[in-house]
Amino acid sequence: MDPELLERWAGLWDAGLRAIWQQYAAAGESLREQGRALAGQTPASVVYTEGRARVLRYHPLVETPRSVPLLCIPSMINRYYVMDLTPERSLVRFLLRQGIDVYMLDWGTATPPDRYRTLDESIAGVLRRVVGAIRRASGQPAVSLLGYCMGGMMAAVYTVLFPQDVAALVNLAGPVNYHDDGIYSVWTRPEWFDADRLVDTLGNIPANVLNTTFHLVRPTDQLIQALNYWERRDDPAFLRAFAALHLWLNDPTPFPGEIFRKYVKDLYQQNRLILGQFTVHGRRIDLGTIAAPSLTIAARRDHIAPWESVAVLHEMIASQDKALIVLESGHIGMVVGSDAHAKLWPRLAGWLAARSGGDSSAPPT
Predict the structure, then answer these.
(1) Superfamily grouping for domain 25-353
(2) Which residues are catalytic?
(3) How many whole angstroms from its chain centre is CA 27?
(4) N or C: which terminal CB in the chain sees fewer CB atoms within 10 Å?
């Protein structure tokens, strides 16, 4: 190839990418404003608060919801509204239409004093009081738990600690084996990651540190997003989903320091959960004792929670009523992707409905 022609082509490519990136960056605040108007908009009432945490009960979309309530437990470092991203891409809204009585735990935004909050207290204290509040509000002796990502681990641990509270367990992309080939498992190895020093220095892990880490996991993702925005910026339907997801991807919350310390050291570095050595307030967590109806959902293209590290829970638990779904999706796409309404939502809703008691009356169409 003619060197001069190649140089001209490279220059045009560079100028074109720079223009695309500049326009994408300039649109950032506008996208966030659009996202805020769309995300987490399914009507709900706050039924319980504790510190920064609150519990939402979504208003039913059927005349008579099913009796067993469902508590959704998101990760502590990402906003809960990923499960209610837009009206068109809302797992919550889909479940409501199937008659599920849906509650959502919003962990809130950690403040400096929250650096001393522990993982043990979050599971055996806060989460138990949340479940108790839902049991009282619903009049039901037990609730179903749907934990997403870190919330999946917490839901499983809670089920071991308080089996009488749990009608059914859904682990949605929550890893159980933390010694795998996933990028977070590699990055947090003790020979080069000092969790103690990080917490002792920073207290809570700041949101901007977490966000930078997320971007570094797949550094080309932002460029791909910029290209997608450029190519489809005149498509209103695309922009709705894009703006809401753009908001969520850039809206993490600080990670409470002591929770981060135990989460990294006991799970990622020592893999204590799968080894049966993980403890909460001195009680050993044996996942093999879980007897509640259980559904484990993993995604083969999950770069955050490798699917094998999630799916292993299905083999470990004692439940006679258990199922495993492995999707050809990614960690986020499995919940809010353009095909989530076909690949995940109906299967999840059908499984839950069969274990949520009674029939429900669908709204008029």
Answers:
(1) Alpha/Beta hydrolase fold, catalytic domain (3.40.50.1820)
(2) 149, 302, 331
(3) 26
(4) C
